[in-house]
Write a structure and sequence with these properties.
This protein is of the alpha+beta class. The protein folds into 2 domains: about 40 residues; about 100 residues, Winged helix-like DNA-binding domain superfamily/Winged helix DNA-binding domain (Arc Repressor Mutant, subunit A). It is built from 4 helices and 8 strands; from the N terminus they run αββββαβααβββ. The chain has a 5-stranded antiparallel sheet, covered by helices on one side. It has a 3-stranded antiparallel sheet with strand order 5-7-6. Helix 2 packs across helix 4 and helix 3 packs across helix 4. It starts with a helix and ends with a strand.
Length: about 150
C-alpha cells in the first residue's frame, strides 16, 4: 500500500511540475511579443507625447516638436521600449554612451531631470519618468505603439 501511495505522490508532483513549466513557458513567450509591439513600431505614444524612433523626433500629440539632445532621446527611447519595466542606471549609462566621452550615473540623473522638465504633466497627472529606488528609472505612463 505504501508503494502505491508513493507512486501517486510522485505522479502528482510530476503533473504539478509540468503545469508550472507550461505556465512559465507560455508567460515567457508572450512577454517578448508585448515588448516587440513597442520596439518594432516606429511611432509610440505615451501620455500626451509621440516618440518617432525612425525620425528621432519627440512631439506633442498636436504635432508641436520638442527639442531633445541625442542623449535625452536615447534615454527616453530606452524607457519607452522597456514599457514600464525599471531600467538600471548602469544599463542607461550604456544606452547613452558614445565612444568620445565618459558617461557616469550623474549624467543619467541630469538627463532624466532635463526630460522631466520637458515632459511635465498637468497638475495631478502621473509623472512620465519615475525613480525606482535602488534600481534606476522607469516610464510612469502607459505606451501605445502604432506605426
Amino acid at each position: 500500500m505504501q508503494r502505491r501511495e508513493t507512486r501517486l505522490l510522485i505522479a502528482g508532483a510530476v503533473l504539478a511540475a509540468a503545469a508550472i513549466v507550461a505556465w512559465f513557458l507560455l508567460s515567457e513567450t508572450n512577454a517578448p511579443l508585448e515588448r516587440d509591439a513597442v520596439r518594432h513600431n516606429p511611432v509610440v505614444t505615451f501620455d500626451s507625447w509621440l516618440l518617432d524612433q525612425t525620425r528621432r523626433e519627440l512631439t506633442t500629440r498636436d504635432g508641436t516638436p520638442v527639442r531633445v539632445t541625442r542623449g535625452e532621446f536615447d534615454l527616453l527611447a530606452a524607457l519607452v521600449q522597456a514599457n514600464g519595466r525599471p531600467l538600471t542606471r548602469d544599463y542607461l549609462v550604456e544606452v547613452i554612451s558614445n565612444r568620445d566621452t565618459e558617461v557616469g550615473d550623474r549624467t543619467v540623473d541630469a538627463l532624466v531631470a532635463r526630460l522631466r522638465r520637458k515632459l511635465q504633466t498637468p497638475a495631478g497627472g502621473p509623472p512620465v519618468i519615475v525613480t525606482v529606488t535602488g534600481v534606476g528609472y522607469k516610464l510612469g505612463v502607459r505606451t501605445d505603439a502604432w506605426g
